C-alpha cells in the first residue's frame, strides 16, 4: 500500500470504494449481489451474531445466491440483537432484528428469494448527517 | 512582584501569587484547622494531598467548599473560614473520620499526643451519629522489630507515604486497596519486615494518629530492672538529652543531661553510661579507617575505595543494603556507637565487674527506631545473646520516668558513671547532622598532620541544608566532605558515586531530617521544625561546654585501647567494633 | 426548538453524528471509512488550515465535552495549545464506567477511525505529536478494533510521520485501565497512565497546563472526538444549528432499564425526555407505569413525570437535579423502589471511591449504611435529615467529581420521592414491593383450599393449618423466602 500523501490520494480511494455506494464488499462490485451487514458489536456478538454471520455466509454460498456478507458495528437496537441489514439489488436496505440462525434461514428463503415479508423489520428511525 | 489582594473573614490581606488560602489566613492570625496537611518548614517537606477535607472554607462564587491547604488565592477572592456551612461541613467530615476510627484512646500509644484527638476536641465532636451500626475497616496489626502498624487507626493523611517515598525515597509505603478499605502500607499488604523499610521511623514521627507507633520495649526494661540476678547497664545517645525535656514541658533545646542521668539512676539502672563514649570510640576506628584509605589513595593506590561513608545510622545502613548492595564495600566497616558500646560493655566492662555476659543487660536510650532493629541483627549477637538487649526511644524513656513518678524538672543534675560514661564534645555532636564528620575531622586532622587544631568549630559543616559540601584543608591536602540528611538526599550522593562523578573523600549520611535530633524516636515535633533547630543548638552548646572536645583525647578511650583493644583497627577491634554488610535487595515475586 | 441544520424537519427524532458510521461501515476496513469521507477533515486541516483556525472552528461549533462535565472542547484545546512545551499529549478517555452505559464502546467498536482522525486533528491544533487512548481492559473487542484501526492508519500513512505530505507527525498508543470508575476523572486517568495509583489530584493545575508526565495534555472522551471530523467537514455553522442555545449538536444515550427499545440513541440536544422514552424507546416495558428516569449514571439523579417535557441539555438536566453525564439513561417503572435505587448507586460509589478523601471514602459508606437500614425498616425520621446533611456535606467537600456528585441519587430521590422514604421509615412499607424486609406474606382465605403444600415447603415452619382448612403464615417466623408463594397452585399466597 502506498501511503496517502495528498487529498487526491484520499479521493482516489474514496472513488474506488464509491463505485459501490454502499460499501459492502469493495472487491465485488457486482450489481446483482445481495448485501448483508451483520451488527457485530459486543452486544451483537453476545447475542449470537457470529453464528448468524457464519450461517449466512455459508448458506448463501450453498444456495447459490450472489451475496456479500460483512460485519459492522452496533446498529443501536440492543433490544433486538442480533441485527442484520439486508439490501437486495436495487432496493432499499432493510434491518431485521432478533435474527438467530432459524430467522436467518427464513430471511434467505422468504425475503431474499421470494421477496415475502418476514417479521422483525426495524424501521429506520434516524436521519444521517447527509439528510 | 506578583501580589494578590483578597479578603478572609472580612479582613483584607495582600499576599504573593501562589500562596494558599491556608497560608494567607495564617498571616492574618487565622488558624484554619488542618489534619492531613503538613509543612516542615526549612526542610522542604510539604504534604498536601487535599485528602482529609477538614480545612475546607467557603469561597464566594465557588459552588463547593475549597480545601484551604491546596487552593491558591486569586485577586479579589472572598473567603469565609467559619460560616455555619463550613463549620457544619467540617464537623460532619470529622464525624465521618471518627466513625471509622477505634475509640480506644485510653490505651492508645498516641493518647494525649494525637493530632486526631486534638482535632476532635477542637471541633467539639460529642457523638458520632450512627456509630452503633457503622462498619469499621479492620486490618491485621503488623509487628516489625521497630514499628507497629495498626491500620485500623489510619486516616489516609498520606504523611507517612510522603515521608517514605518523597523524602526518604525508600518506597516501602503506599496506598493500597480502594474506597473504604483504603489504607497505607507496603505493596500487596506485605509486612513491613518483608518490605524495603529501613525503620527510619519518619513515618511514625509524622503520623497524626496511633496508626504508626514504635515497638514498645519499656515492659522488657522494667522486667530486667526488677530481676535481681541481672546487672542492667544503660547507654544514652547524644540526641536524647537535647529533646527529653520537651516531654516534661521544658522549652525545646533545653539540655537535660544531668537530670536524665539522675532519673535513670532512680529507675534502678546499675550503671548509667553514655553512648557518647562509644561515639568517641567510633571516631577512633572510623577516623583511622578514613586516614588509612586516604593515605593509600594519596599514595596512588587505585584500588582504594573513596569516598568513605559513615555507618553510624542503622536506617542508612539498611538503605544501602537494600538499594545499593553493589556499593556495600564503600561505607566504613565501623559499627554504630550503640553496637560498639554493647560489644565493649558485654566484654571489657563485664569482665571488669566480674559478671557473666548473660547476666548483664544492656539497654540503650535512642532517638531512633531503627536502633531497635539494629540491636537484634544477627551479627551483633554472641550465641544468641545480643550486645544490646533492648533499645528504647526517647519517648519510651519519658514514659518510664513518668510511670516511676519522677518529675524531670526537679531532679538534681548527676554525672554518668565511669568508665563508659566519659565522653568528649566530639561524641556529643554525633546527635546532629554534620556532627559525625566534624568529630572525625577533629581527630583525623590532628592524627594526619600531627598538628593541633586552632579552631574546633567547623561552621561550614553545620546547618540544615539538605546536602552540604565543604573542603577542609589538611595542612595542604584539601579534603572534600559531603553531608546529607534524609535518605532521598543520600541517594543523590550515592548515584554520583555510582556514576563515578563524586568529588568527595568522605561523606556523612543520616537518615532523619536534622540527623538524630529529628529521629523517629524523639518527642513528636507536630510539624514545628524550629524544635529541631533548637535541639541542634543544644547539642553544639553541650559540645562547647565540654572540657575535652576531641575523641582521641578522651582518657577512658585511651585506657580502653591500652588495657583491652590494643590500637584502632587491631584484630580485637575488628572482631568487636567492625561489621560487614549484606545484600538485601529483593525482587518481589507476585504469585 | 430543534433546527436540523437548514434541512427540512424530519419525522425522525434521532440524528446520527457521533454514530454516523456505527452500524454502517466495517470497522476493520479503513477504506470503508475513507469512502464515507473519513480522514478528509484531517487532510483539509493539515493542508489548508492553521491550528488556530481549527480551534476557532471547534469553539464556534459549541461542542462541549460528552464525558459528563460539558466543558467547551474548543476552549480546552486552546488552553493546551497556548501552553508551550517540548512535548504535549492528546488523550482519549475511553474509560466508560457508568453502570449501563456503552456509548463509547459502541463508537470504538463501530467507528474507531473517527476517534483516531479526531485525535490527530487535535494534536495538530495544539502542537502534540503523541496520542494515548486510555481504555478499560474489559472492552476487548473495542481494543482489538482500535489496534487494527491504528495499524491500518499507519499503513495508509494517516498516522506516523509527514501526514499528508506535511511536517506534521502524529501517532497513537493504547493504554489499559483496570476498570476503576474514578479513572474516568481526568487527573486520575493521567495518574493511572503514568503507572501511579488511580486517584485524582486537585485542579488546578488542569491537564491542559500540566498533565501526562507534567506536559500539557488534552483529555476528551470518545464521543467528543467522534463529533470532531464531521464538524470540520460540515462546518461549525452546520453543527451549531443543531441543539439548544448552550448545548450544541447531539448526545448519544444508552437507553436501559424498564423500557421497550433498549439500545443506543442519538438525539439533538433539546429533545425531551418524553420523546426519547416514549417515541424512540417505545415506552415502558409491559406497559407499566413510568416512575423515574435516571440520567448521568451514579453521579446523576432521578427525574420524574414532571421532568418528562424538559428539553435535554447540559444545563437543564443540572437544573432539574440530575446531569447529562456520559449518557446512561435508565428508565424505572412502578416496580422500582426509589430508596433501593439510591442504595444501588451508593453501593456502586462506595465500591468505586478511590479512598483518597474522607467524605467520599467514609461518608458514602455511611450514606449507604443508612439507606440499607431504611430498606430494612430500621430507619427513623431523624435519619432522613441525616441523609440530606451527609449528602450535602459530601457534595460540598469531596475532592473530585465522583464524591461531589455521588449523593445526587440520594438527594434527587429525597426531593422527588420523599413520601416513599417516609413510607419505609414510618409505615415500614415498600410501595414498590422491592424491599424484602418490609414485605409480609399472607394467605388469601377465599383462595386457600387447605392442600398443605405451602406448609410442607416452608423451611422454617411458619405456616400452620389443618388439611382442607385455611392456612396461616406467622409473620414472626417467616423469613420471606417466597417458597410458599411459588408452590401454591391456587394463588392463595400473596406478598405485600
Question: What can you see in these coordinates?
Answer:
The complex is a heterotrimer of chains A (about 130), B (about 600) and C (about 500). Chain A is an alpha+beta fold and about 130 residues long. Chain A is about 35% helix and about 20% strand. Chain B has about 600 residues and is of the alpha/beta class. The longest helix of chain B has 24 residues. Chain B is globular. Chain C has 20 helices and 14 strands. The longest helix of chain C is centred in the last third of the chain and has 18 residues. Chain C is elongated, with a radius of gyration of 26 Å. The N terminus of chain C is likely disordered. Classes of the chains: A alpha+beta (about 130), B alpha/beta (about 600), C alpha/beta (about 500). Chains A and C meet through helix 1, helix 2, strand 2 and strand 6 of A and strand 1, helix 1, helix 2, helix 5 and helix 7 of C. Strand 6 of chain A pairs parallel with strand 1 of chain C.
- Quickly give the structural class of chain B: alpha/beta
Q: What would you call the quaternary organization?
A: heterotrimer
Series of H and E elements of chain A: HEHHEEEHEE
What is the highest CATH level, the class of the domain at 33-122 in chain A? Alpha Beta
CATH architecture assignment of the largest domain in chain B = 3-Layer(aba) Sandwich
Please identify the top-level CATH class of the largest domain in chain B: Alpha Beta
Give the CA-based shape of chain A. Answer: globular
Q: Biggest β-sheet of chain A, characterized? A: 5 strands, mixed
Q: How big is the Rg of chain A? A: 16 Å
Low-confidence stretches of chain A: 23-28
Radius of gyration over C-alpha positions of chain B, nearest whole angstrom: 25 Å
Helix content of chain B: 25-40%
Determine the strand fraction of chain A and express it as a percent band.
15-25%
Largest interface: A-C, 41 and 58 residues
CATH superfamily of the domain at 33-122 in chain A: Glutaredoxin
How are strands sequenced across the largest beta sheet of chain B? 2-1-7-5-6
Please list the strands of the largest sheet of chain A in the order they lie side by side: 2-1-3-4-5
Amino acid at each position: 500500500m502506498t501511503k496517502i500523501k495528498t487529498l487526491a490520494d484520499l479521493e482516489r480511494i474514496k472513488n474506488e470504494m464509491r463505485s459501490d455506494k454502499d460499501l459492502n464488499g469493495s472487491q465485488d462490485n457486482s450489481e446483482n449481489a445481495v448485501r448483508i451487514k451483520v451488527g457485530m458489536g459486543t452486544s451483537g456478538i453476545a447475542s449470537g451474531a457470529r453464528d448468524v454471520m457464519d450461517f449466512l455466509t455459508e448458506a448463501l454460498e450453498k444456495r447459490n445466491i450472489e451475496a456479500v456478507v460483512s460485519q459492522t458495528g452496533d446498529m443501536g437496537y440492543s433490544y433486538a440483537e442480533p441485527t442484520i441489514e439486508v439490501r437486495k439489488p436495487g432496493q432499499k436496505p432493510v434491518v431485521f432484528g432478533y435474527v438467530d440462525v432459524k430467522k436467518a434461514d427464513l430471511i434467505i428463503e422468504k425475503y431474499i428469494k421470494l421477496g415475502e415479508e418476514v417479521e422483525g423489520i426495524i424501521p429506520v428511525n434516524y436521519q444521517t448527517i447527509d439528510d | 512582584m506578583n501580589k494578590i489582594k483578597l479578603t478572609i473573614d472580612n479582613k483584607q490581606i495582600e499576599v504573593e501569587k501562589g500562596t494558599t488560602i491556608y497560608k494567607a489566613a495564617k498571616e492574618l492570625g487565622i488558624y484554619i484547622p488542618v489534619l492531613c496537611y503538613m509543612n516542615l518548614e526549612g526542610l522542604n517537606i510539604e504534604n498536601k494531598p487535599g485528602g482529609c477535607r477538614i480545612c475546607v472554607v467557603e469561597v464566594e462564587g465557588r459552588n463547593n467548599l475549597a480545601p484551604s491547604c491546596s487552593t491558591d488565592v486569586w485577586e479579589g477572592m472572598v473567603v469565609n473560614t467559619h460560616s455555619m456551612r463550613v463549620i457544619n461541613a467540617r464537623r460532619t467530615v470529622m464525624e465521618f473520620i471518627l466513625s471509622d476510627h477505634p475509640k480506644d484512646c485510653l490505651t492508645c500509644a498516641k493518647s494525649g499526643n494525637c493530632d486526631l484527638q486534638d482535632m476532635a476536641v477542637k471541633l467539639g465532636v460529642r457523638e458520632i451519629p450512627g456509630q452503633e451500626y457503622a462498619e469499621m475497616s479492620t486490618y491485621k496489626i503488623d509487628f516489625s522489630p521497630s514499628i507497629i502498624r495498626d491500620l485500623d487507626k489510619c486516616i489516609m493523611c498520606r504523611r507517612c507515604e510522603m515521608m517514605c517515598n518523597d523524602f526518604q525515597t525508600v518506597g516501602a509505603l503506599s496506598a493500597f486497596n480502594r474506597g473504604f478499605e483504603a489504607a497505607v502500607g507496603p505493596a500487596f499488604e506485605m509486612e513491613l519486615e518483608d518490605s524495603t523499610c529501613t525503620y527510619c521511623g519518619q513515618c511514625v514521627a509524622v503520623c497524626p494518629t496511633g496508626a504508626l507507633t514504635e515497638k514498645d520495649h519499656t515492659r522488657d526494661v522494667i522486667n530486667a530492672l526488677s530481676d535481681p540476678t541481672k546487672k542492667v547497664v544503660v547507654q544514652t545517645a547524644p540526641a536524647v538529652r537535647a529533646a527529653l525535656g520537651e516531654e516534661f514541658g521544658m522549652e525545646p533545646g533545653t539540655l537535660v543531661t544531668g537530670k536524665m542521668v539522675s532519673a535513670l539512676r532512680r529507675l534502678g539502672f546499675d550503671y548509667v553510661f553514655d553512648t557518647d563514649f562509644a561515639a568517641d570510640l567510633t571516631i577512633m576506628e572510623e577516623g583511622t579507617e578514613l586516614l588509612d584509605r586516604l593515605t593509600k589513595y594519596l599514595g596512588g593506590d587505585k584500588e582504594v575505595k573513596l569516598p568513605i561513608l559513615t555507618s553510624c545510622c542503622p536506617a542508612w545502613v539498611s538503605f544501602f543494603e537494600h538499594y545499593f548492595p553493589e556499593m556495600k564495600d564503600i561505607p566504613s566497616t565501623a559499627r554504630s556507637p550503640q553496637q560498639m558500646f554493647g560489644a565493649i560493655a558485654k566484654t571489657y566492662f563485664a569482665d571488669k565487674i566480674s559478671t557473666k555476659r548473660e547476666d548483664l543487660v544492656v539497654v540503650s536510650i535512642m532517638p531512633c527506631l531503627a536502633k531497635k532493629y539494629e540491636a537484634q541483627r544477627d551479627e551483633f549477637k554472641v550465641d544468641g545473646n545480643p550486645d544490646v538487649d533492648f533499645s528504647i526511644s526517647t519517648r519510651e524513656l519519658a514514659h518510664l520516668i513518668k510511670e516511676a513518678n519522677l518529675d524531670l524538672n526537679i531532679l538534681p543534675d548527676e554525672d554518668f558513671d565511669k568508665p563508659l560514661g566519659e565522653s568528649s564534645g566530639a561524641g556529643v555532636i554525633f546527635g546532629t547532622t554534620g556532627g559525625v564528620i566534624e568529630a572525625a575531622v577533629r581527630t583525623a586532622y590532628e592524627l594526619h598532620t600531627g598538628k593541633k587544631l586552632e579552631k574546633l568549630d567547623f561552621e561550614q559543616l553545620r546547618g540544615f541544608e539538605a546536602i552540604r559540601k565543604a573542603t577542609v584543608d589538611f595542612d595542604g591536602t584539601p579534603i572534600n566532605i559531603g553531608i546529607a540528611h534524609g535518605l532521598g538526599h543520600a541517594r543523590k550522593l550515592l548515584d554520583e558515586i555510582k556514576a563515578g562523578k563524586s568529588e568527595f573523600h568522605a561523606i556523612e549520611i543520616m537518615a532523619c531530617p536534622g540527623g538524630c535530633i529529628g529521629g523517629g524516636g524523639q518527642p513528636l515535633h507536630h510539624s514545628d521544625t524550629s524544635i529541631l533547630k533548637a535541639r541542634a543548638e543544644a547539642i553544639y552548646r553541650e559540645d562547647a561546654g565540654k572540657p575535652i572536645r576531641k575523641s582521641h583525647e578522651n582518657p577512658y578511650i585511651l585506657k580502653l585501647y591500652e588495657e583491652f583493644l590494643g590500637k584502632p583497627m587491631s584484630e580485637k577491634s575488628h572482631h568487636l567494633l567492625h561489621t560487614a554488610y549484606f545484600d538485601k535487595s529483593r525482587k518481589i515475586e507476585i504469585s | 426548538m430543534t433546527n436540523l441544520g437548514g434541512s427540512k424537519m424530519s419525522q425522525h427524532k434521532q440524528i446520527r453524528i457521533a454514530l454516523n458510521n456505527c452500524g454502517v461501515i466495517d470497522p476493520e476496513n479503513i477504506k470503508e471509512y475513507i469512502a464515507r469521507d473519513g480522514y478528509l477533515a484531517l487532510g483539509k486541516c493539515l493542508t489548508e488550515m492553521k491550528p488556530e483556525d481549527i480551534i476557532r472552528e471547534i469553539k464556534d461549533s459549541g461542542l462541549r465535552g460528552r464525558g459528563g462535565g460539558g466543558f467547551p472542547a474548543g476552549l480546552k484545546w486552546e488552553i493546551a495549545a497556548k501552553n508551550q512545551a517540548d512535548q504535549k499529549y492528546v488523550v482519549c478517555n475511553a474509560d466508560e464506567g457508568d453502570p449501563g452505559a456503552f456509548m463509547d464502546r459502541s463508537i470504538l467498536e463501530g467507528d474507531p477511525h473517527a476517534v483516531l482522525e479526531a485525535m490527530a486533528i487535535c494534536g495538530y491544533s495544539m502542537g502534540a505529536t503523541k496520542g494515548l487512548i486510555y481504555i478499560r481492559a474489559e472492552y476487548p473487542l473495542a481494543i482489538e478494533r482500535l489496534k487494527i484501526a491504528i495499524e491500518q492508519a499507519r499503513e495508509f500513512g494517516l498516522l506516523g510521520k509527514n501526514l499528508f505530505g506535511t511536517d506534521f507527525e502524529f501517532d497513537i498508543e493504547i493504554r489499559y485501565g483496570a476498570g476503576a470508575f474514578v479513572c474516568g476523572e481526568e487527573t486520575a486517568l493521567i495518574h493511572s497512565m503514568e503507572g501511579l495509583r488511580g486517584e485524582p489530584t486537585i485542579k488546578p493545575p488542569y491537564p491542559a497546563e500540566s498533565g501526562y508526565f507534567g506536559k500539557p495534555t488534552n483529555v476528551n472522551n470518545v464521543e467528543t472526538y467522534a463529533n470532531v471530523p464531521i464538524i470540520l467537514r460540515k462546518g461549525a455553522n452546520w453543527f451549531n444549528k443543531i441543539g439548544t442555545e448552550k448545548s450544541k449538536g447531539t448526545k448519544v444515550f444508552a437507553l436501559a432499564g424498564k423500557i421497550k427499545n433498549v439500545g443506543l440513541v442519538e438525539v439533538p440536544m433539546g429533545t425531551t425526555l418524553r420523546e426519547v422514552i416514549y417515541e424512540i424507546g417505545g415506552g415502558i416495558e409491559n406497559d407499566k407505569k413510568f416512575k423515574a428516569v435516571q440520567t448521568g449514571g451514579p453521579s446523576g439523579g432521578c427525574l420524574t413525570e414532571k421532568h418528562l417535557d424538559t428539553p435535554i441539555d447540559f444545563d437543564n438536566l443540572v437544573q432539574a437535579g440530575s446531569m447529562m453525564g456520559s449518557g446512561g439513561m435508565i428508565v424505572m417503572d412502578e416496580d422500582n423502589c426509589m430508596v433501593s435505587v439510591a442504595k444501588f448507586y451508593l453501593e456502586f460509589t462506595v465500591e468505586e471511591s478511590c479512598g483518597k478523601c474522607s467524605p467520599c471514602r467514609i461518608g458514602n459508606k455511611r450514606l449507604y449504611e443508612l439507606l440499607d437500614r431504611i430498606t430494612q425498616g430500621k430507619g427513623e425520621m431523624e435519619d432522613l435529615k441525616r441523609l440530606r446533611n451527609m449528602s450535602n456535606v459530601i457534595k460540598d467537600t469531596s475532592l473530585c467529581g465522583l464524591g461531589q456528585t455521588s449523593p445526587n441519587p440520594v438527594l434527587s430521590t429525597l426531593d422527588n420521592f420523599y413520601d416513599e422514604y417516609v413510607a419505609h421509615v414510618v409505615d415500614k412499607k415498600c410501595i414498590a414491593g422491592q424491599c424484602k424486609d418490609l414485605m409480609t406474606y399472607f394467605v388469601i382465605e377465599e383462595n386457600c383450599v387447605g392442600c398443605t403444600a405451602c406448609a410442607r415447603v416452608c423451611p422454617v415452619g411458619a405456616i400452620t393449618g389443618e388439611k382442607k382448612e385455611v392456612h396461616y403464615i406467622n409473620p414472626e417466623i417467616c423469613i420471606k423466602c417466597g417458597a410458599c408463594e411459588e408452590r401454591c397452585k391456587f394463588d392463595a399466597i400473596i406478598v405485600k
